[in-house]
Amino acid sequence: MTPEPKVCAGCGRRIEWRRRWADDWESVRWCSDACRRRGVKAVDRDLEQAIRDLLAERARDASICPSEAARRVGGEDWRPLMEPARRAARRLVAAGEIEVTQKGRVVDPSTAKGAIRLRRAR
Ligand SMILES: [Zn+2]
After folding, report:
1. What is the pTM of this model?
2. Rounded distance from Cα 59 to ligand 1 centre (Å)
3. Which domains are seen in the chain, by residue range?
4. d(CA 10, ligand 1 centre) in Å
5. What is the pLDDT of residues 45-77, one digit of tens each?
6. Of 33, 32, 43, 42, nearest to 70 (Cα)?
7. pLDDT per residue over 79-93, tens digit each?
8. Which letter does DSSP use for residue 3 in this model?
9. What are 8-48's pLDDT values in tens digits?
10. Which residues contact 95 (CB under 8 A, 6 or more apart)?
């Protein structure tokens, strides 16, 4: 039986079991060397918290754009934080805290392309 997928500790994307990991699947945390090298830094935790705070400030059903979290953490220099903000959002989806939507529908954050919005999990 193939083990259940897990979620990358960095980018928050699903990690499907692969045969080459058969012996150490338990210890797999990262989907790629890039994610392992990048790790999760203080700024990444700040982005997670910014998403939580922004959603807490809005109506229960309101959604936000990941760029709002990037701006809150990065100020003027927010653009480099856009992809980190999306990674933070995926980690929060994995934690069951939020949902990622496109056109008001919940989408799979592992595969969603293009603009996304974030809202509290329902
Ligand atoms: Zn990853």
Report:
1. 0.94
2. 31
3. 6-38 (no CATH), 42-120 (1.10.10.10)
4. 5
5. 999 999 999 999 999 999 999 999 999 999 999
6. 43
7. 999 999 999 999 999
8. P
9. 999 999 999 989 888 999 999 999 999 999 999 999 999 99
10. none
Residues in CB range of 25: below 8 A, 6 or more apart: 3, 17
CA of 53 to the centre of ligand 1 (A): 24
Length of the chain: 122
Which residues does residue 15 pair with via DSSP β-bridges, in sequence order? 6
As given in the structure block, the two tokens for residue 70 are 């990037």
How far apart CA 70 and CA 65 sit, in angstroms, is: 9
Give the chain's end-to-end CA distance (angstroms, integer): 32
Q: How many angstroms separate the alpha carbon of residue 34 from the centre of ligand 1?
A: 7
Kindly give the distance from the C-alpha atom of residue 47 to the centroid of ligand 1, in angstroms, as a whole number.
17
The burial of 86, by beta-carbon neighbours within 10 Å (0-12 exposed, 13-18 middle, 19 or more buried), is given as buried
